[in-house]
C-alpha cells in the first residue's frame, strides 16, 4: 500500500467492518443468552471468540467466523502485515481489500484453502 490516503481509507473501512461485525455478534449473543452477552461486553472484543460458552450456540458459528476474520485483519494491521496474503505473503490489491477488508489470502491461496477445507469434511 503506497499512499497515506489509501492506508487511511483502508484502515477506516477495516475498523468500520470490524465494529459492525462486533456489534452484530454481541446483539445475536444477547438474543440467545443475555448473561453471556453481558459477560462478553466486559471483555476486550478480541477475546470474545475464545469464550468456551459459545460452543452451546452452533447458530452463532457464521458470525463467529466473521468475528475471527475481523480480529485477524485488525491484528495484521497492528503488526504491519495488513494487505499481505497470510499464506504466501503476496500483496493484496487495494480493490480486493476495499471489497473485503478482512481478506486474508490471495486468490491462489484462498482456492487452496477452500479445497483443503472441503477435503476435511466428513459425512
Please, could you describe this protein's structure?
This protein has 123 residues and is an all-alpha fold. The protein has a single domain, classed as DksA, coiled-coil domain (Four Helix Bundle (Hemerythrin (Met), subunit A), Up-down Bundle). The protein is built from five helices and no strands. It starts with a helix and ends with a helix. The mean pLDDT is 92.
Describe, in short, the structure shown.
A zinc finger (dksA C4-type) spans 85-109. This is Transcriptional regulator, TraR/DksA family protein. This protein is mainly alpha-helical and 123 residues long.
What is the topology?
Elements: H1 4-32, H2 34-41, H3 61-79, H4 94-99, H5 107-119
Short key terms for the protein model shown above:
single chain, about 120 residues, mainly alpha, Four Helix Bundle (Hemerythrin (Met), subunit A), about 60% helix, flat
CATH superfamily membership: DksA, coiled-coil domain
Helical percentage: 55-70%
Major sheet characteristics: none
Q: Spell the H/E element sequence.
A: HHHHH
CATH class, anyone? Answer: Mainly Alpha
Number of domains: 1
Secondary-structure class: mainly alpha
Distance linking N and C termini: 43 Å
What is the CATH topology descriptor? Answer: Four Helix Bundle (Hemerythrin (Met), subunit A)
What Rg is obtained from the alpha carbons, in whole angstroms? 16 Å
Shape: flat
List the uncertain runs. none
Question: Which whole number gives the mean pLDDT?
Answer: 92
CATH architecture: Up-down Bundle
| Number of helical segments with 4 or more residues | 5
E-strand count: 0
- Give the strand content: under 5%
Amino acid at each position: 500500500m503506497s499512499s497515506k490516503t489509501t492506508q487511511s481509507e483502508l484502515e477506516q473501512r477495516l475498523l468500520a467492518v470490524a465494529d459492525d461485525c462486533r456489534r452484530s455478534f454481541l446483539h445475536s449473543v444477547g438474543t440467545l443468552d443475555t448473561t453471556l452477552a453481558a459477560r462478553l461486553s466486559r471483555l476486550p472484543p478480541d477475546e470474545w471468540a475464545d469464550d468456551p460458552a459459545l460452543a452451546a450456540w452452533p447458530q452463532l458459528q457464521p458470525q463467529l467466523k466473521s468475528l475471527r476474520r475481523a480480529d485477524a485483519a485488525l491484528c495484521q494491521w497492528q503488526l504491519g502485515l495488513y494487505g499481505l496474503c497470510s499464506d504466501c505473503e503476496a500483496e493484496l490489491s487495494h480493490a480486493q481489500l476495499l471489497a473485503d477488508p478482512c481478506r486474508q489470502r490471495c486468490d491462489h491461496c484462498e482456492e487452496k484453502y477452500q479445497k483443503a477445507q472441503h477435503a476435511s469434511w466428513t459425512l
